[in-house]
Amino acid sequence: MRVLGIDCGSEITGYAVVEQSAQGALACVAFGAIRLSPREPLPLRLRKVLGELGKVIELHAPAKVAIEDVFYAANAKSALKLGHVRGVAMLAAATYDLEVTEYAPLAIKSAVVGYGRAEKSQVQQMVMRLLNLPALPEPPDVADALAIAICDLHTSATLHRQRTSGHGTV
Questions:
Q1: Active site residue 69
Q2: What angle do CA 11, 71, 78 make, to 5 degrees?
Q3: Exactly one of 7, 19, 52, 152 is catalytic; which is it?
Q4: Taking the mean position of all CA atoms in its chain, how far away is CA 70?
Q5: SS3 for 99?
Q6: What is the domain extent for residue 87?
Q7: Is residue 170 part of a domain?
Q8: pLDDT tens, position by position, for the chain (170 residues)?
Q9: Between 76-95 and 42-60, two packed helices, what is the crossing angle to 10 degrees?
Q10: What is d(CA 168, CA 27) in angstroms, rounded to the nearest whole number?
Q11: Contacts of 49 (CB under 8 A, 6+ apart)
Q12: Which of 94, 115, 91, 93 shows the shortest CA–CA distance to 105?
């Protein structure tokens, strides 16, 4: 299974493609950051996010997309900008007929670090270990995107095990 994790942001949107083998081994396929200039008009920034995510989807062919659910913004304007980027990320997935799953930040951190209130540096360290990366993924938005993809893969594997273990029992 191959998942595209997206950490939406109004200035930096991190993305990561992570694959899990049938044996459960995780592998990083690709990751990066879409950097947006606050000086550009919002429609141009959104077009850039859509175009870049489209390229990633076409190049790496993920089976699904996972994004972080909105949890908190400093103010209403920040929340609206983040919402626009999240909408574009969902649109990119829908354009390629990919399912989108949303995860709360606490769930992502719990799945990756084992503690829902982990610091960004702890997420970076654990992602580096889980994926055997040679260095910490930078910027932190990329580490978050990797964590989102790992969370989805772990969650999907758990749900699959629950479904298959429930078959044949009365």
A1: no
A2: 35
A3: 7
A4: 13
A5: strand
A6: 2-165
A7: no
A8: 999 999 999 899 999 999 999 888 999 999 999 999 999 999 999 999 999 999 999 999 999 999 998 766 677 888 888 899 999 999 999 999 999 999 999 999 999 998 888 888 999 999 999 999 999 999 999 999 999 999 999 998 666 666 776 654 44
A9: 40
A10: 33
A11: 13, 34, 36, 85, 88, 89, 92
A12: 115
Q: What are the b/e assignments for 85-100, b being 16+ CB within 10 Å?
A: bbebbbebbeeeebeb
DSSP 5: E
Angstrom distances, CA of residue 33 to CA of 84, 86, 143, 157: 17, 15, 10, 27
- Looking at the chain, how many residues does it have? 170
CATH code for the domain of 124: 3.30.420.10
Q: Which two tokens mark 149?
A: 């993809």
Cβ atoms 72, 33 nearer than 8 A: no
Query: In this structure, is residue 10 part of a structural domain?
Result: yes
| Candidates 19, 58, 102, 141; catalytic one | 141
Report how many domains make up the chain: 1
Catalytic residue among 52, 68, 144, 152: 68
